[in-house]
């Protein structure tokens, strides 16, 4: 009897322990702790709430080298080329035709032309605009086939820094202009509207000036400028002149007559003094005669 009662007590005790464990597991406190633990685990694997958190480096990964941001709207190098040339030619008309052919070949054009004919020489002054890529070829063509080069001066001016500075300021002014236009649409008083409109007007003027400056620089960069002077000397000397003796004799007679006329006119210009001298002589003689009497 005792042997059967002892196992039965042990079995009842074990069933009571299992029941108490099940009740403890179903208690509210245990449920709350479990939910907090699960929530904590969920929050630990949740994605970051901000972009800056996404950009934080991963500790488990090896550090990657930093990459510099790509520059947008990179401004190309801006170089302005200018030149001055003076060429002595034997015939102005022939040289002018040669220049026209060279300009056509190099896609250049004449911006300004001025001709002057004097007793000593003939001068044809040209302001030529040439595409930047053809500037050197044009200079070489003038140096080789037109005449004797008396002087040549070529200069290059790098304006990249100025162009970049104006471009950046222009972009900023356009941004400010849009902001002020937004402010104008939301302005509530007349005073604010007038002040904003005045600021907008000033910004628009500054933008126009900046855009004009950029257009001017682009024009000077894309088309170089060359000041070309064609020169023909008129020499009149016995050693170098091709004019005959008769012509030179006539020129000498003409120059002598012109000199005589100039001398005569110069004397005539002193007529007040010539008129005053006889009067002074007459008065002096009269005074002297009276003194003797």
TrEMBL record:
Residues 1-19 form the signal peptide. Pfam families: DUF4349. It comes from the Bacteria. Keywords: Coiled coil, Membrane, Signal, Transmembrane, Transmembrane helix. InterPro entries: DUF4349. Residues 186-220 form a coiled coil. Residues 78-284 form the DUF4349 domain. The chain crosses the membrane at residues 260-284. This is DUF4349 domain-containing protein. It comes from Chryseobacterium carnipullorum. The lineage of its organism: Bacteria, Pseudomonadati, Bacteroidota, Flavobacteriia, Flavobacteriales.
